[in-house]
Amino acid sequence: MTTQTQRDGLTQHIDKLMPKLSEWNQVIWHYAETAWREYRSARFYVDLLREHGFNVEEGSAGMPTAFCATWSNGSGPTLGGYAEYDAVPGNCQAADVVKRPRDNLSPWAGGHTDPHSALGMGSLGGFLAMQALMKEQGITGTLKFFGEPAEKVRGSKPIHAAHGYYDDLDAAISFHPFYMLPLCNTTRWDTHCGAAYGVIYTFVCDSPETWMTRGTHSPIAASHASARAPGANDAVTQMYTNAKALREHVLASGLNWSMNEVILNAGQATADNLAAQMSQIQYFIRVSTVEQAEHVVRGLDHIAESVAKLTHCRVERHWVAKSRPGLPNHSLAALTYANLERVGPPALGEEAIELARKIQTGLGMTPMEKPFLADIETLRTPQDAERELRQILPPNQTHFTSDDYTEYSWHAPTVRLYVGRPALAPRDDGGAYPDWVMNALGGLAPCIDPMIETAAKTVGLTLLDLFQKPGALEEAQAEFQKRTGGGIGGDKWLAPLCDYEPPINFRWPEYVTTPRGENEWVIPASSECFKAPRGQ
Known about the structure:
By secondary structure, the protein is an alpha+beta fold. It has helices at 4-31, 39-51, 116-137, 156-162, 231-245, 290-310, 330-343, 350-362, 382-390, 436-441, 445-468, 472-484, and strands at residues 55-58, 67-72, 78-83, 88-89, 110-111, 142-147, 171-177, 186-187, 195-204, 258-263, 278-287, 314-323, 414-419, 511-514, 517-521. The strands form four sheets. The chain has a seven-stranded mixed beta sheet. A four-stranded antiparallel beta sheet has the order 10-11-9-12, sandwiched between helices. A two-stranded antiparallel sheet has the order 4-5. Helix 5 (231-245) crosses helix 6. The protein starts with a helix and ends in a 15-residue tail after the last strand.
């Protein structure tokens, strides 16, 4: 039976941990390493967990920046959670009240937008506090804590799932900072994140000399006297424009879905007169169901094959992600929300308020008495959040937005917890704040620490209930069995979709060391880029 003494003991452990959690968050926030290249961030977590007695497998499932950490205190349930730590290219904002990149870095370097730095610390704090309480009170069971890189491309979790890392979990807790209303200070109810597919098309022009040849053609493929092969650059631009033009012919209008693209390779940047040999474009597809994702990829395949013929190239397709849609668990969602109610929403203090007012002043605004969005300090029941969310969705849409925590939900009862992160109140003139503002707030300790504390206490108390509260885990597992038609392998269960190797060898953005210096970004810095007009 979970007692108030145990709850008090757990939250006291987090109170003691908070200076360290704040410090650790700053470390990861300033590393700001992007997907598949989070080397220092993963190393930091691995060393930290080993210091706390966890047995840590590095490079789990063949991913260099992933890990699986386990700590056991005897027989009992195995409860899972995770840290993410990938940042986003092009968001290199300093922890400051003005727009500027972090010191000595390009403005195009990585930065934390969600921020995943605080996501990891909020979850880790709950697990470390639970570990301490288990040692003190002889609570038995196992804690399993994962390092999940590359969430921004739904990277690691489909791969971990396919390799069986989640199969021994009895329940899992997923925490994320709030990123949209009404999903703030609540847990997801029915409408979970949808399926997401990531795919790269590589166009290769490896026989440019055979383009429209005649018996008298020049033996030099790049001869100025000959028509040259279109090549890979033409292929990738044709792919880009045709996928845009034909988008509405892939899925019917009226469906809430998205497809984004990015061009990865610039290998021909210093060749002025050769047909480009290789180009790559990545598509990321966010839809409600796996069937819709498969259909979109079939459409992209058709376009890619046609483009390859047109541009004298061959095309290869590579998978980045195949992520399943989420499976609800009302029992665990209700249990976690009850603990969020016990903890209460984040409370932003005077120091945070003053920092927010300085940002508003710098933007040319009159600083507000209450500068933060009221929702950040307000609870919202899962049922209320669900009703609000459904108002913007078609009645037949089963899932919305995208995140690969959904992989856990097919292997064990899983809750999705959202806690308010600092965001400013709406401007009086109806305008939008520049995007750097929320990024900066995520790096200012007085602003972001209340979210970390709230999350850590909620995660920790939920772990405690799953270990100690009679019937809590059993109820969540019974619901999981029903929804999957018998658990893992059941007749309603959706198996892992990952049938590819970890996509770690593509040209992902990263920090590099060159003769120009250490920690250079793949796009070099330019002092002119640091200058921004007032209010931007």
